[in-house]
Design brief:
alpha+beta, eight-stranded antiparallel β-barrel, 8 strands, Porin
């Protein structure tokens, strides 16, 4: 089931990239030619789509994946959104009872990024930002230690739905005018996030 959900995220992203208009690609190339690309790799009206995975999220046994989008309001400011899926596991104990609990987390959120175009490094777009999202959490529990007539898994009631907030710094490393590798590090859902972005 986990593989299926990640596969769906990948297919949606690939489909979005395949629908990129040729005129948009030409416009991006023309814009990059007219400006000094080493100092301005993010532009007003740029529309970015991508996918990423978190290497350290929720816990040692957890992971998460995101589909993201961002629109350039100015040459420095981008607003966007993301759809995420994550999972992690933990062991819970109570007196002589124990259970393994697996969480499934779906997230819908918005992002604000400030691109540091005044820092001029070839092929790099540095940015800082924040995100705000809402988590929908479900869980399954399996007893690992029981007592006659007692089950921790059956007794658990967990409500993890709610807001999440994160702050981060990140960078794009451009492989071409439209394709970039992305890395983010910060506080929130994930400590380190790696992905690929495409500018339409």
């Amino acid at each position: 089931m986990k593989i299926t959900k990640i596969t769906v995220l990948l297919l949606i992203t690939v489909f979005a990239l395949s629908m990129t208009p040729a005129e948009a690609r030409k416009k991006r190339k023309s814009k990059a030619t007219q400006e000094n690309t080493s100092s301005s790799l993010f532009h007003k009206s740029d529309f970015i789509v991508g996918i990423s995975g978190a290497l350290a999220s929720y816990g040692e046994t957890g992971y998460s994946a995101r589909i993201n989008a961002e629109y350039g309001l100015t040459n420095n400011i981008g607003l966007g959104g993301y759809l995420g899926y994550g999972t992690y596991s933990e062991e819970m104990t109570y007196l002589a009872l124990a259970a393994d609990v697996n969480y499934q987390i779906y997230t819908l959120g918005a992002t604000f990024n400030y691109h540091l175009n005044f820092i001029k490094i070839s092929k790099l777009d540095l940015f800082a930002g924040a995100d705000l999202g809402y988590n929908i959490v479900s869980f399954t529990a399996t007893d690992t230690q029981t007592q006659p007539g007692l089950s921790l898994a059956n007794a658990l009631e967990i409500d993890g739905n709610g807001l999440e907030f994160g702050i981060y710094g990140g960078m794009h490393y451009f492989l071409s005018n439209n394709l970039a590798l992305r890395a983010k590090i910060g506080f929130g859902v994930s400590i380190l996030e790696l992905g690929v972005d495409y500018i339409l």
